[in-house]
Amino acid sequence: MSVQPIAAASERFPPLPDTGPSRRRGRLPFSPWHLLLAPLAAIMLVPLIWMVIVSLETRQQATTFPPVLIPSGLHFDNYSAAWNAVPFGRFFINSLLYSLATVAGNLLFCSLAAYAFARIRFFGRDVLFVVLLATLMVPFQVILIPTFLIVKQIGLVDSVGGLIMPNLCSAFGIFMLRQFFRTLPIELEEAARIDGTSRLGILFKIVLPLSLPALATLGIIQFMWSWNDFLWPLIIIDSQTHAPLQLGLSQLQGAHFTQWNLLMAGTVMSQIPMLLVFLLAQRWFIRSVAFTGIK
Amino acid sequence: MSAASHAPRAAVRERPSLARRLIRSDHLAGWAFVAPAVILIAVFALIPIGWSLLLSLQSTNLIAPAHYVGLANYRALTKDPAFRSAIGHTLVYTVLFVPISVGGALGIAVALNRKIRGIRFYRLAVFVPLVTSTVATGLIFLWLLDPTFGLVNYVLHLLGLPQQQFLQDPNQALYCIVAMTVWSWVGFDVIIYLAALQGIPQDLLEASEMDGASRWATFRSIVLPLLGPATLFIVVWSTINALQLFDEIYVSTRGGPLGSTTVIVYYLYQQAFQFFNGGYGAAIAYVLFVAILIVTLLQLWVGRRRVYYSS
Amino acid sequence: MKRLILLPLIAAALALSACGGSSSNGSGTSKAASGGTSGGHTTITLWEGYTEAEADSIKALAAEFNKSHPNITVNVQFYGNNDYALQKVLAAIAGGKPPDISYLYGSWAPNIATNPQVVTLNKLIAQDPSFDWNDFWPAGRKVATVNGKIIGIPALVDNLAVVYNKKLFKQAGLATPTPNWTWSDFENAALKLTNPAAKQFGWAYVNDASEDTVWRFWAMLWQAGGSILSPDGKHAAFDSAAGIKAATLLQTLAAKHAIYLDNGSDNYLSVFNGGHIGMLWTGPWDLSQIVQSKVDYGVTTLPGDVNHQTISGPDNWVMFNNGSAHTAAAWTFLKWLTSPAIDLKWATMTGDLPIRASVAKMDGYSKFTSKYPGIAIWAANLANATQARPQITVYPKISTAVGQAVQSVLLGKASPQQALSQAAQQVNGILAAPG
Question: What is the pTM of this model?
Answer without folding.
Answer: 0.89
